[in-house]
Amino acid sequence: MTGHPAGTPIKGTTRLYAVLGDPIAQVQAPALMNPLFAQLQMDAVLVPVHARPENLEQIVRGLQHVENLDGMFVTVPHKVAVRRLADRCGPTVDIVGSANVLRREPDGSWLAENFDGSGFVAGLVGAGHDPRGRRVALVGAGGAGSAVAAALLTAGVDRLSVYDTDTSKLGALVARLGTYWPGRVSALTGPQLRDTDIAVNSTPLGMRPDDPLPFPLSALPPGSVVADIVMKPRETRLLREAAALGHPVHHGIHMLEGQLNSYRVFFDLH
After folding, report:
1. Does a structural domain hold residue 137?
2. Fewest Cβ atoms nearer than 10 Å: which of 60, 88, 93, 215?
3. What angle do CA 39, 41, 47 make, to 5 degrees?
4. How many structural domains is the chain composed of?
């Protein structure tokens, strides 16, 4: 029988957590959470679950009936769809329309919340790229992008410009954010990011070697920060090419690292 990364054996008393995605090989949550469980001397393990979109509801409903499963982490492409599978949603989920964690409550119900955005901003600030008062452009209005957009506005960006190839999704996000932060968010008609201090890729582009760039780098002002939320590979094509042009770059893993404290509180890990 295999054990935790730190060598603690998995027993009949072990509490379970799952991370759901499609694909799943790139997820970094087990590499961060399992050492945290070991550090806290918790009898718990986080395992990857490959869930295709057409099977998501069946898989989530099944996991919700696993009595020793206390929580789920959610990644691409399920963050929007999983929201409706929770019994209750936290305030961030209501604003952004997506979730990246589900927690089993004492009464057996399930609460959804989203820490992608707060984790991304915490990572930015920790790396010396505080977005307050800056002009930020974001490409990708999906589950993670929506959360990142709301967190950037909460953090006090001066202006947020958003682009997505899905114009209906883009319009819905900009309208929703505009009700909370009027006059500070706008939709871009194309991926050309000009007059921006921080450019963010919140699409899955970059996970595969042959992916195109999510946005051209040629229009960016010199010295603007280029940030990616893709965690694996660490050095995406976007970040490699941006660094070669002299731009400061910000890696995707910082978003997950920035969420660790939020996860500890949310799941009451001690």
Report:
1. yes
2. 88
3. 80
4. 2
